[in-house]
């Protein structure tokens, strides 16, 4: 920008001098110099417009399976297929959710006629999701540095990025292995307290008379002495914002934490299931290391939406007895759900370990409940706590 301003000031001074020359001295030399200085910006403008229409960009990322936080080979080619040389061409990249590694972002390229420049580098996608990467804008300057044309790349590149598999210890500061052993040994069988209303055809032997007397209607036991096994993770899939700068990091962290929990227990030979909302309740089974890879592929395609309310998820999961029969139950949410105040004490009474993770940069009102709700284990996981490879997500210049 400083160079552009300097060149324009120099050109204006020269043009003013040429105008003074024809005004005070006249002659063919003065008029020739004046015409030259007058035509330079016109020629520069036509040159920039010409380059805009004939300049070509090719870019590609190698490999179809992009994973957040992992480098992927990336290249781009600038092509000049014409008989006029191009100079002072600069490309700028999308930088809010991805970064081009090992490349000078201020480098300017010059292309001889019928030639091209290819740059091989690496692309780092920071978040899971679907978004544009690579070259976003192109800047063209004329030979004299008087006119600059900056425009959006006509053929941007959109990629689908899978969530990163992260060790649980990198996300939370707690040892779940000892907790699991202690809580699981405390009560391996589920007490006979889960009931539902009596329906025609039910076995009368399953009637829970104590609960029936208390409620005034026949209630049937849902499970009798069911041995608990495995872990259930209830994950929120509510999209809380329309701004991709807000929802992409948040959703990415939710998926990272859920996958880290699932991977941790799978390695410990503990069955894991994940429940979330996506056009109704969806349950994915991650039991066994041989099953985990398939689970990861399916889980990477989870869609967040405004209709998948977290209150609704907790209510439907508890109402459908999805959370019954597990040794440990984890909630991965972004805000407090009122039904947690009912579920957590119930599980605590049944010796079912329950832990609620809130993925957020701000502590919610759940902090006030942590002391008053029996058995409530509460942790916060910050969304913007770790920048991959030390990258700072600014991107202000090329996002404007």
Regarding quaternary structure, what we see is single chain
Estimated helix fraction: 25-40%
State the separation between the terminal residues, measured CA to CA: 16 Å
**Main sheet properties:** 6 strands, mixed
Describe the model:
Helices cover 32% and strands 27% of the residues. With 400 residues, the chain is an alpha/beta fold. It has three domains: 162 residues, Immunoglobulins (Immunoglobulin-like, Sandwich), CATH 2.60.40.10; 186 residues, 3-Layer(aba) Sandwich (Rossmann fold); 30 residues, no CATH class. It has a six-stranded mixed beta sheet, with helices on both faces. Strands 1-3-7-5 form a four-stranded antiparallel beta sheet, with no helix packed on it. A four-stranded antiparallel beta sheet has the order 6-4-9-10, covered by helices on one side. The relative contact order is 0.11. The C terminus is likely disordered.
Summarize the structure.
This protein is about 30% helix and about 25% strand. The protein contains nine helices and 19 strands.
Topology readout:
Layout: H1 2-24, H2 27-54, E1 56-61, E2 66-67, E3 71-80, E4 86-93, E5 98-101, E6 109-111, E7 115-125, E8 129-133, E9 135-141, E10 148-152, E11 157-162, H3 176-186, E12 195-197, H4 209-215, E13 219-221, E14 231-235, H5 244-267, E15 272-277, E16 281-285, H6 289-299, H7 310-319, E17 328-333, H8 340-349, E18 353-359, E19 377-381, H9 396-399
Parallel strand pairs: 2-11, 14-15, 14-17, 17-18, 18-19
Antiparallel strand pairs: 1-3, 3-7, 4-6, 4-9, 5-7, 8-11, 9-10, 12-13, 15-16
